[in-house]
Amino acid sequence: LGMKSSIPNLTHHTLFFEHSLDEHIDCIYADKKWPEKPLFYACCPSKTDIDVAPEGQENLFLLMPLATGILDNEETREEYLMHMLERLEKQTGAKNLREQIVYKRSYCVSDFVQDYNAYGGNAYGLANTLKQTAVWKPKIRNKSVQNLFYTGQLTVPGPGVPPAIISGKIVAKEAIESDYKL
Ligand SMILES: Cc1cc2nc3c(=O)[nH]c(=O)nc-3n(C[C@H](O)[C@H](O)[C@H](O)COP(=O)(O)OP(=O)(O)OC[C@H]3O[C@@H](n4cnc5c(N)ncnc54)[C@H](O)[C@@H]3O)c2cc1C
């Protein structure tokens, strides 16, 4: 979101975890439905970086973890955006955030399917189930094509920025140590 005025009492990273974490987790993993009392993360990089929004304005990113494969039509996205803005107003004392929006873009489950062919529209790669853990994770080295390596969150060691970087480091080491010559 691009907001036309500054939001008070908000930092670069703010977690809105006022409600039950267990209930939200059940909506993601057990019930696979939109949460009634969602928890969300607000990232407001304009609080620390003057280059990401015009002076006096705000660059705001709201992230709400969701179940895979759920229906995410425009109406539902809008409903949850309004809910998150109300929570922001309540916690920060900001007023009329809805009217402050100068730019809006939502990105949800169906966008991950459309743009990345992501299984179930997931954003974080493989779930950490037993069969997708440790030695059962997809291998870094291709089984058939010699000297073809994979790197990133879908292979070893797993999802998240730090593991994705470590994955690149492992592949670099493997590639350097392999006997492949150009
Ligand atoms: C909303 C969201 C929030 C997140 N928050 C966090 C967080 O707080 N902390 C954390 O640690 N992780 C977080 N992650 C996860 C983290 O972003 C990923 O785990 C990490 O970026 C994965 O790195 P990667 O290199 O595997 O994939 P990517 O970063 O997706 O990089 C893949 C690259 O390959 C390119 N590409 C794809 N297909 C092709 C092709 N055919 N040819 C050429 N190039 C191609 C893409 O354009 C892209 O640049 C978050 C992810 C999302 C979606």
SSE map:
Blueprint: E1 2-3, E2 13-16, H1 21-29, E3 40-43, E4 58-59, E5 61-63, H2 74-92, H3 97-100, E6 101-103, H4 109-116, H5 161-177
The structure holds flavin-adenine dinucleotide.
The site of flavin-adenine dinucleotide has 10 residues, from helix 5.
What are the key terms here?
182 residues, 2 domains, three-stranded antiparallel beta sheet, 5 helices, globular
Structure description:
The protein has helices spanning 21-29, 74-92, 97-100, 109-116, 161-177, and strands spanning 2-3, 13-16, 40-43, 58-59, 61-63, 101-103. The radius of gyration is 20 Å and the shape is globular. The chain is an alpha+beta fold and 182 residues long. It has two domains: 2-121, no CATH class; 130-177. The strands form two sheets. It has a three-stranded antiparallel β-sheet. It has a three-stranded antiparallel β-sheet with strand order 2-3-5, with helices on one face. The structure holds flavin-adenine dinucleotide.
**Largest sheet properties:** 3 strands, antiparallel
Order of helices and strands: EEHEEEHHEHH
Low-confidence runs (pLDDT<50, min 5 residues)?
A: none
**Which percent range describes the beta-strand content?**
5-15%
- In terms of quaternary structure, the protein is single chain
What's the rounded overall pLDDT mean?
A: 95
Continuous helix count:
5
Amino-to-carboxy terminus distance: 47 Å
- Give me the count of strands: 6
Radius of gyration: 20 Å
| Shape annotation | globular
* Largest sheet strand order: 4-1-6
The kinds of small molecule bound in this structure are: flavin-adenine dinucleotide
Quickly give the structural class. alpha+beta
User: What is the number of independent domains?
Assistant: 2
- Percent of residues in helices comes to 25-40%
